[in-house]
UniProtKB/TrEMBL annotation:
The keyword Zinc-finger belongs to this UniProt entry's keyword annotation: yes
Coiled coil regions, renumbered to chain: none
Protein name: E3 ubiquitin/ISG15 ligase TRIM25-like
Pfam name, any one: zf-RING_UBOX
InterPro entries: E3_ubiq-ligase_TRIM/RNF, Znf-RING_euk, Znf_B-box, Znf_RING, Znf_RING/FYVE/PHD, Znf_RING_CS
The encoding gene: LOC109100440
Start and end residues of each B box-type domain: 151-187
Domain (RING-type) ranges: 10-57
Entry-linked CDD domains: Bbox2_TRIM16-like
Keywords of the record: Metal-binding, Zinc, Zinc-finger
UniProt GO molecular function: zinc ion binding
Amino acid sequence: MDAREEELKCPVCVEPFTDPVRLPCGHNFCQTCIQVVWNMDDPETSREGPLFCPECQILLPPDLELEISADLQRKVQDAFARAPLLEESSQMSPSIITCDQCIGKTEVAVKSCLTCDASLCSAHTLLHQQREALRWHSLIEVTEDLISFKCKEHGEELKLFCQEDQIAVCCLCIAVGSHKNHQAVTLQEACTEFKKVLKTNKSLLLQRKHLAKSALQDLEPLFSEVLKNAEAYRVRIVEKYSQIKAHIEEDQKLMLAILETEEIYTNKWLRWRSESLKCHVKEINAVLKSSQTLLEAENDVRFLQHFKKHGIGSQSNKFGPRNSTP
């Protein structure tokens, strides 16, 4: 926001001037704001003290008459393109809280008074702070929910904190109500104590956060170290098992070669043995045939001659059990 727009705002309500008036000292104010400051907004209330400028504190004539500055009002309207306040009020968002003390005009509330059960604009807030009778009222941030700041049992302002039940209570609760004889402190004291606890917890949490972040920083190099070590072990494992695989393959080739040699030798021996047995069977068949012929001979002389000649009797021992190896 530029300086020109700031100059067109009332120093009391900090809003664009509404019905601006200029004091003899040269300072400008909203007509309503300066009347509230001077306690002139309520005809039934007598003004206390002399007139003065809220900005420079200069004393002003008691019979001073306020006149609206048409020129300044026009500048404000041109700068802010502001419609009359009554029209603006009809279009105002329902979420905006207005001042309950302003009569005939609508001003945005900036504070709420628990004592008055009312919301106040900047000017009426300033009045609360300046007037002795209103100075001790409890002002809070503007809210529509004033009832939540009051005791549900007695309707009084919550000013104390019951330490036994850990709840905000009013003075009547401690004096005659359900919290009678309970230990109580003011809300400010309770808040101060709880804030101390909160600050202590916050300090502990910050320490834990620092330790956690420090631990995280310590973990960072471990990630790369684990990756590096894992890669080194991976290479060693691959090399080791590659060597084992090579030895196994070499042993496999050797065993297969030995097996192949044994197979060739065994097959050769089996073939020799088969041929040998076949010849043996053939020889036996020949002898059996000759023996059968002799057995069928009827002449004893010829039988004996032929038996002796061919040595059939001695050949029977020839076909006895043979060695299984060549």
